[in-house]
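step 4 of 6: structure.
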Amino acid sequence: MKSLGVLCIGGLQTHQENHAAGFNAGERSHIVAVADEADIDERRRALNIRLAEQYDVPYVEGIEKAVALPGIDIVSMCADVERRHRVAVACANAGKILYLDKPLASTGELATSIVEAVASNDVVSQMYSFVHTPWAKAAKACVDSGRLGKLLAVHTDILFAKGRGGTETSASVRQESPEPTQFTYVESKREFFDLGVYPIGLCLWLTDAEPVEVTAITGNYFFEQHKRNDTEDFGSVAMTFAGGVVATATGGRIGWNSHPAGGPHRITIVGELGTERFDAWEPRLEIYSTAEPPKLPSPHPQDPMGMWRSTQQAAGIPKKTTYVPLADETSWYPDDITAFLDCLEQGRAPVMSADRALGPSKVISAAYRSAATGQPEPI
Amino acid sequence: MVWQSGFAASTSLAPSSNHLRRAWRYHLVMPNPSRKSAYLDRLSQALSKAVDEERIGIPRFLRWLDRLDTETSVNESLNSALESCNQIFDGEPIRQHRSGDNELHGTIHATWLNGSSAIISAGPNRSGSGGVSNGPEIMLLGSSGSIFFDGINAGIPTVEQVGRV
């Protein structure tokens, strides 16, 4: 397989930090350029240029110009989610293979436009997800084996223990918007949207179906930054499927001190013959000693929630030491990109293609409507 | 699909001190002890004590996932868990949605007047363990901390053998 050229859309303080590192790690792909739309704000532009400098590649302004560069096979897409759909559609229309950040787009409707462009241009696509993590694969093997009998329910929690929690202590109850339009701020983002896509994607993948109806609840439970920006830090959704299967998912950010590792990452499979759980941090060692426990340092001014690798390193956020899982999280990003490149090399369809990734976007849109109205919502 | 609405009228009547709050809770929402195992009583009390002592800040979300033996009904399990949630969240939910078949599995998705919420689920226990209930796994998220109870991995529930306090 020749080394595939990768165009990175978006730069530092996006998931492109991890995606670019993954594509730059092996011999099957290499970074050709970094690009973005021409009319983006100065902060985003500067962060994009810094990523280009990091890989010593050119920074290109304008998507049309960037996809016309020679040697571009893959587009790694991390444009801000509010405009991700139009950039992704432009890249699909240019016939490029797409590696997409999650979620696909800000609404189910806009995500559909990506899926349609991918289909009409017959391009291969994959959205970053947790389906290639060892614990998720073990859960899928459990379902596929039939050892629990008929599948009854799937329960999944993906919560990130990052940022200084405990700052939101007011008694007021947040009113959700049925159709959010802004998702990303410097100091906070909509966490049910951004992190809920992981557990919802796992639920739909494990059940191999899309739900017919959802109920959802969102809240400002932990962080004043989220409260200030009217962005939820937590959400939960219950999904019912044709045939009576039920799935529930929680997604959000709970505070660095609220978990001894990266946060609860757990799948529970319920079948008519029993229940099994699959946890990212199990099996593990637990170490307790007289050593000083790591402490959360002062927050990085551009990333108080500790969202990005570069700002985590700059702020000196230490690795927690109590849990030592036998399979830790450091390989999750590289594994997803390895699986993507394997598919390209072997001519297989990626598991979390744009088509499959549409389901979580539709669920999230319906979930916001339910959280706003307090009523069940159809997909 | 059933959405049940009920106003937690007594919430605003709750006395402010922790002592009085606990007494109020006992009279209004504590289940009849004879219908609940000592194990679940102890577990609920331990959770409430941690909340009352402000170990995790304001309780915000509870995930309760019960593994049932063949003798316990889904509804019995869900209702018992809901009573524990009511203790923790100081009242009854203002909305709850129930799903599942209520024979083998069931789920309640509920929210309280103060915005707190819970997902309560029950399903069959692990195959090969003789249909013995291992009780619930619990994740209680508070504004400044969290409580995790591992249920099946937390050891044999010997509290039944030593009796009630």
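step 5 of 6: annotate
 - Chain A touches chain B through 46 residues (CB under 8 Å).
 - Chain A has a mean pLDDT of 96.
step 6 of 6: archive
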